[in-house]
Amino acid sequence: MPTALRVLTLVIGAGFTLQGLGWLVAPSRAAEGLGMPLLDGMGRSTQVGDFAAFFLVGGLCMVLGTRPGGRRLLHVAAGLLGAAAVGRTVAWVVHGAAFAALFITVEALVCVLCLAAARRTA
User: Is 62 within 8 Å of 20 (Cβ atoms)?
Assistant: First the structure.
C-alpha cells in the first residue's frame, strides 16, 4: 500500500478509535459531537454500548488493516461505514430523520478509502 494511503487510513482509524473510547469515557461529549442528546436508562446503555462498539471496531479494523495481511479488516471497516451511510439515508427517506449530509459523506468517503487501501494492500 502506498505510504500516503497507509498514513491516511491509520490517522482516520486512530480518530475513530478515539471516538469509540470517548463513548466509554465521556459519553455526553461524544453524543454532543454527533449532534444527539445523551439518552437515559436503557437508551443510554444501548447508545453508549453500540456507538463505542461501532467506532472501536471500525477504527481498530482500519488501523490493523494497514498491516501486511490485514486487508480483510479494511473490508470490515468499509462494511460498517457503508451500512451506516445506507442506514442514515433510509432514516431520512422512510422515517423522517433530518438528512445528515455531512455524516453520510464522511462515511461514504472513508468506506471508499478503506476499499482502496484494501485493494492496494499486498
Answer: no
